[in-house]
Design goal:
Number of strands: 11
CATH class of the largest domain: Alpha Beta
Bound molecules: nicotinamide-adenine-dinucleotide
Structural class: alpha/beta
Helix content: 40-55%
Largest sheet: 6 strands, parallel
CATH superfamily of the largest domain: NAD(P)-binding Rossmann-like Domain
Strand content: 15-25%
Oligomer: single chain
Number of domains: 2
Order of helices and strands: HEEEHEHEHHEHEHEEEHEHHHHHH
Radius of gyration: 20 Å
Strand order of the largest sheet: 8-7-6-9-10-11
Shape: globular
Distance between the termini: 33 Å
CATH architecture of the largest domain: 3-Layer(aba) Sandwich
CATH topology of the largest domain: Rossmann fold
Length: 362
Amino acid sequence: MKLFKLLKEKAHEKVVIFGDKDLGLNAIIAIHDTTLGPALGGCRMWGYNESKNPLYAGMLDALKLSMAMTYKASAAGLDLGGGKAVIVKDPSTISEEEREKIFIRFGEFVESLNGKYITAEDVGTNVKDMANIMKSTKYVVGIPEEYGGSSDPSPVTAYGVFMGIKACLKEVFGTESLEGKIVAIEGVGNVGYNLAKYLYKEGAELIVSDIVEEKAERAAKEFNAKITKPGKIYEKKCHIFSPCALGGSLNSKTIPKLRCKIVAGAANNQLKNSKSDGERLAKKGILYAPDYVINAGGLINVSMEPAISGKPYDREKTLKKVENIYYRLLEIFKISKEKDIPTNVAADLMAEERIIRARKNS
Ligand code: NAD
């Protein structure tokens, strides 16, 4: 019953459960909204071992994440809807051989939806899995370069965040120059490291933290960054705080510590509570770049692969398209000021309005 209540609340178009007894495979594909185009969203492979009911937990994740993808695609201006797949399985419990069979079979599930859902990489899956999915369906992106794909999206995501930071600087300081600006980056992994490279090149001073010391040290060596302990980065005086680690790092404990003018980073679900933490940032006079808008570079990147664009992948054209994140953010800041609402609420409004307009015109 709880599940049906959730389905009604989040208004999904279609949710399908697939199973293969021999492979011990249980998968959920949730299609939230296809008003703007086919539902795109990664395939997550996770055991949900912490839950008493892993299948239910997986279903909840699929429902929430597919809805988030609808907003992300719409706000990015893409003609795509929101979807997500979850394979309820602990990836550490299977052999490479089993893994290959599972993803080929999963590809058959995707194929059976006739292009209504397009899959991609997510937590627990990788490029090799996408290559296996490709053996049974054409509805997959994030495939290896040798098959015409775009491969690792992180440098493109980082470029989008970099452009987003420029939009924030323009809004707050009237100039997008990074010269002498201090940026504190939480997490210098795939995206954070590439972002640091862009920022350093344009004259920013960097403060970094990472729970993996070598990653912070690499940024210190290559970009002259100052290293700070992970929990201490929130209180560093800087112009921009850039969350590039895990979700939920902006919350009732960390926001009061912030000493920045802008929050703009790559992490997904940065606000622990989207309502109260969005308001908290706004009240503190900090400009927040909504996460799913500023980190859409990865999504824009895969949308340029042949399975969606119908054309060969072109990195230069992709980066040009990613630059639109700059204008999208300025538009959101304008809505936020006009309606006197937090920027994350303005982003949701913008995304919803585009879908409503498309429904009216169809
Ligand atoms: P990653 O795992 O390569 O990097 C994350 C880094 O954060 C790691 O180096 C990790 O050690 C560090 N970290 C974890 N907890 C930390 C903490 N408490 N304090 C400081 N550092 C911590 O992941 P990524 O691909 O760089 O992605 C970063 C974030 O951006 C994630 O939230 C991801 O969901 C989001 N994102 C990534 C992409 C992409 O293209 N890779 C696209 C959109 C969104």
